[in-house]
Amino acid sequence: MKKGAKKEPISDRRRFFLDIARGIGLATLGGLTWSAYVDEVSASKLTLRPPGALPEKDFLSTCIKCGMCVEACPFDTLTLAKPGENKPLGTPFFTPREIPCYMCPDIPCVPVCPTGALDIKAVSNKSNELDINKAQMGLAVVDDTNCIAFWGIQCDACYRACPILGEAITVEYTKNERTGKHAFMKPVVHSDVCTGCGLCELACVTEKAAIFVLPREVALGKAGDYYIKGWDKEDEKRLENATMELTRTKRSEKSAVDSLNSGLEDLLE
After folding, report:
1. pLDDT in tens, 33-62
2. Cβ–Cβ < 8 Å for 158, 166
3. Contact 174, 138 (CB under 8 A)
C-alpha cells in the first residue's frame, strides 16, 4: 500500500476467515502450552525438593511458587523451574552436581514457606527444635559399575564429603581376590540416615557422578502389604483379622510323603 493511501475496510467475509484463523492459532498455542505443562509435570518424578517438602503430589498442590525459599537459601542451592527444564514450572528444586544442599543448621528455606509446602515439623526433633539431619530430600545411590572404589582404586571422596560422617555413608572393606594383597573400600549408603543433600554427588571424582541422589520414592523399594515383620509388634497386629484361604489341587489330596514317593516312582520308571 502506498504512503497516504486510504485503508480499505475489512469485509464481513474476510473478518470471518480472520477470526477463524486467529482462533485456530490461539487453540494451537494453548494446546502446545498445555502439552508442555503436562510434559513438565509428568517428568517431575526425579525432581529434588528443598528440606521438609511434602510428598510430591501434596507439594505441587500446596506450593504457590512464591520463590521465598529460593531467596532464603544462602548458597543459591535452590532455583525455580523454568520452561524446558522438564519440571513443574515455578517450583523450587536443586541439582546436587551443580550446587548441593549445604545442610544449614537453621534451615532458612523452610520457616519462610507461607503455605506449609515445606513442613517445618518434618525437619524438627522431638523437642520441636530444627534438625537438618531429619531432612529427607532424597537418597544417594551408588553405581557400583562405574564407582572406581569397586574397581579396586582407593577412593573415599563421597564418604569424606558426607556431613553425617560415618553414619549416612560407611566404607566396607573386602578382600581383593584378584590380587590377594589389596582391599576394596566400597561406599555403602544407609537409607535411614541419608538426607539426600547431594554433597557426596558433588564430591564424586568420576566424570559422571557414580553416586547420585534420587527422590526416596524412586530410590527405595517397597515390600508391599503381603509381608509381615514378625519382629515389629505394630506390623504384626495386621494378622489379628487375617483369614486363611487354602488352594486345593489333585496333588494336595495326597499326603506330602505319598506325593514325594509318587514323584520318585515316576523317575524310576
Report:
1. 444 454 455 556 889 999 999 999 999 999
2. no
3. no
**Four-CA torsion 119, 124, 126, 127, nearest 10 degrees:** -120
**Who's near 266: CB < 8 A, 6+ residues apart?**
none
pTM for the full predicted model: 0.71
**Rounded CA separation 98/202 (Å):** 7
Q: What is the mean pLDDT of residues 55-71?
A: 95
Task: Give the separation between CA 147 and CA 50, rounded to whole angstroms.
Answer: 27
Question: Vertex 137, ends 134 and 141: CA angle to 5°?
Answer: 110
Q: How far apart are CA 163 and CA 262, in angstroms?
A: 63
pLDDT tens, 164-173?
999 999 999 9
Q: What residue ranges define each of the domains in the chain, with the CATH number in brackets?
A: 31-133 (3.30.70), 138-220 (3.30.70.20)
Over the stretch 194-228, which tens digit does the pLDDT of each residue have?
Answer: 999 999 999 999 999 999 999 999 999 877 777 77
